[in-house]
Design goal:
CATH topology: Rossmann fold
Radius of gyration: 17 Å
CATH architecture: 3-Layer(aba) Sandwich
CATH superfamily: NAD(P)-binding Rossmann-like Domain
Order of helices and strands: EHEHEHEHEHEHHE
Mean pLDDT: 94
Strand content: 5-15%
Number of strands: 7
Number of domains: 1
Shape: globular
Number of helices: 7
Structural class: alpha/beta
CATH class: Alpha Beta
Length: 257
C-alpha cells in the first residue's frame, strides 16, 4: 500500500471489468475515491462501486463513451461533484476490434478502434490536465497501452496503430507538462487473464504462451499493482515512460513468433 494515495481521487475509464476493474479495486484498497466508468456494463460498474466501498475507499459509477468529448467531460464533472477534485486520470478504455487483413478492413472498423483507444486517451488526458493546471494540482495521467505499441499485431492493424499512437501521446504529454509537476506514463500489459482471453484454449492458448518467456498469462491484479506504484509518490521522478507488464513478451518478439 502507498500512504500518499489515501484520499486521492482517480477516474478509471472502462473499469466495470478486466484490467480497468482491477485497477479500480486496487485504488479502493488504497482508500482512494474512484470514478468507475462503463459503456455497456452497468451491473459490473455497480458491483465495482460496492467492492471499493467495502475495501475502505469510495466510488461512483458514470456511464459514458470516452470517444466523445461530452462523455469525458461528464467523468470529470462527476469527480469534482462527488469528490471535489481530480488527482489521477487512468485512460484504460480500449478494445481490439475486428481481426482482418488491412485490405479487408473498413474505414468504420478502423475509426472506431482509433476513436476509443487513442482519441479517448487524448480527450481524457486533455480534460484532466486542463483541470490540474487550473487548480495547481501536481497530478498523474496513466495510459493503459499494450505490448503491441512495440510488437506489430498481424491482422489487427487498427489496434497496433492505436497503441503505437498512445506511446507517442504519452511521451509528448510528459514533455509538455513535466515542469508543471504533472506526470504522464503508460503501462503496457502483455497477455492478461481477463474476460477477453477466456476463449483461448488448447492450441490457441499454447501458441500464445509460446510467445511469453515466463510461460504464463499475467493477472489483472499484477497490472493494477504496477498502476498503483506508478501514480504514487514513490514514482515521483518517473514520467514519459512505459512500464511493460508482459512476462518478458517484448524481449525477443521475432524469435518467439
Amino acid at each position: 500500500m502507498y500512504n500518499g494515495l489515501k484520499g486521492k481521487t482517480a477516474i478509471v475509464t472502462g473499469s466495470s471489468k478486466g484490467i480497468g476493474r482491477a485497477i479500480a479495486d486496487r485504488f479502493g484498497k488504497e482508500k482512494m475515491n474512484v470514478i468507475i466508468n462503463y459503456h455497456s456494463d452497468p451491473a459490473g460498474a455497480i458491483e465495482a462501486v460496492e467492492h471499493i466501498k467495502k475495501s475502505g475507499g469510495n466510488a461512483y459509477a458514470v456511464g459514458a463513451d470516452v470517444s466523445e468529448e461530452e462523455g469525458v467531460k461528464a467523468l470529470l464533472n462527476a469527480a469534482v461533484q462527488h469528490f471535489g477534485t481530480i488527482d489521477i486520470m487512468v485512460n484504460n478504455s480500449g478494445f481490439n476490434g475486428k481481426n482482418a487483413f488491412p485490405h479487408e478492413l473498413s474505414l468504420d472498423e478502423w475509426q472506431r478502434v482509433i476513436d476509443v483507444n487513442l482519441t479517448g486517451a487524448f480527450l481524457g488526458s486533455r480534460e484532466a490536465i486542463a483541470y490540474m493546471l487550473d487548480h495547481d494540482i501536481k497530478g498523474s495521467v496513466l495510459n493503459i497501452s499494450s505490448v503491441h505499441q512495440q510488437i506489430p499485431r498481424p491482422g489487427n492493424i487498427q489496434y497496433s496503430a492505436s497503441k503505437g499512437g498512445m506511446k507517442q501521446l504519452t511521451e509528448t504529454l510528459a514533455i509538455n507538462y513535466a515542469d508543471k509537476g504533472i506526470r504522464v506514463n503508460a503501462i503496457a500489459p502483455g497477455t492478461i487473464a481477463t474476460e477477453s482471453n477466456d476463449d483461448l484454449e488448447g492450441s490457441h492458448k499454447a501458441a500464445q504462451l509460446k510467445k511469453i518467456p515466463m510461460k504464463a498469462f499475467g493477472k489483472p491484479e499484477e497490472v493494477a499493482a504496477a498502476a498503483a506504484w506508478i501514480v504514487s509518490e514513490e514514482a515521483a521522478y518517473v514520467t514519459g515512460t512505459t512500464l511493460f507488464v508482459d512476462g518478458g513478451m517484448t524481449l525477443y518478439p521475432s524469435q518467439l513468433e
